[in-house]
Design a protein that fits this description.
This protein is of the alpha/beta class. It has a single domain (4-257), classed as Rossmann fold (3-Layer(aba) Sandwich). It contains eight helices and eleven strands. The strands form two sheets. It has a nine-stranded mixed sheet, with helices on both faces. A two-stranded antiparallel ribbon has the order 5-8. α1 (16-26) packs across α8. The longest helix has 11 residues, at 16-26. It is globular and about 50 Å long. The chain starts with a strand and ends with a helix. 50% of the residues are buried.
Length: 260
């Protein structure tokens, strides 16, 4: 049986159907579920093998991007979320979903976050919304979503608060060394971005575009791999230069979910 994927839907979420299409293409059975249906017990967390927090502007980014959704995850759904993550099932948060995972303390490390928040996603270094295509390098074998991926991924970004920064700069080095920095921004030819704009579109420390938890089953990333799953979506497709489908990430996640 193909794994079932739970796609959380909050007011303002608008990339849920994009995520559902990517999961279908990767072999999963997605279901978009409003948070209220989970709250009322109309859907059960344990019936799903994957969890997706899609992009958008949940609660209109009130109090900051992803902040109100993060508060819901912390208070109304803390138990089910913790159980889902601890079970080892794959979880992915994209853009607004990544912001919610970080601000709820589920990324980069919930153990450290319980004492004090170590990192955040803040305003882009350029001071404005970024909407452009970027190149990502999968660099982590710790993360089940990027494990075994060797080719760059091309996909768009669309955010105003995607700048990943940590309280202690040395902690960034530890994230990279441990394999928690799963995806890095790069130049189109695959060379490291080294912070250069527009390859690193938001100024994130160490060019970090995506992070996983220490166990590797939870991935959060600012870019939108769900918006490049067909060659025709690539801006260079008409020139025969399409490459780097984001579908590879979802195939990894779906394959891993098959064991649960």
């Amino acid at each position: 049986m193909p794994p079932k994927a739970l796609i959380l839907f909050a007011p303002g979420t608008n990339r849920d159907l994009d995520a559902a299409r990517a999961l279908e293409q990767a072999g999963a059975v997605p279901e978009v579920v409003p948070l209220n249906r989970l709250r009322r017990g109309e859907r059960r967390w344990q019936d799903y093998q994957m969890l997706v927090l899609p992009g958008g502007f949940s609660y209109a980014d009130a109090l900051g991007a992803g902040k109100l959704l993060a508060l819901e995850l912390q208070h109304d759904f803390a138990g089910p979320m913790a159980e889902f993550v601890a079970s080892g099932k794959p979880v992915i948060g994209i853009c607004n979903g990544f912001q919610a995972l970080v601000k709820s303390g589920l990324l980069p490390d919930p153990v450290q976050a319980a004492a004090e928040a170590q990192a955040t996603l803040t305003f882009n270094a350029g001071g404005h919304f970024e909407c452009r295509w970027v190149t990502l390098l999968p660099v982590s074998q710790t993360c089940i979503w990027t494990r075994g991926l060797n080719e760059p991924i091309d996909c768009p970004v669309a955010h105003g608060e995607g700048n990943f920064q940590a309280r202690d700069p040395h902690w960034i080095d530890a994230l990279v060394a441990s394999g928690q920095a799963a995806l890095l921004y790069a130049a189109p030819d695959g060379r490291p971005a080294h912070g250069a704009y527009p390859y690193n579109p938001n100024g994130s420390a160490a060019d970090i575009a995506g992070l996983c938890n220490p166990a590797g089953n939870v991935l959060g990333l600012m870019p939108h791999p769900e918006d490049h799953i067909f060659a025709e979506q690539h801006p260079l497709w008409t020139r025969g230069l399409a490459r780097g489908s984001g579908l590879a990430l979802f195939r990894n996640g779906v394959a891993y979910a098959g064991q649960f």
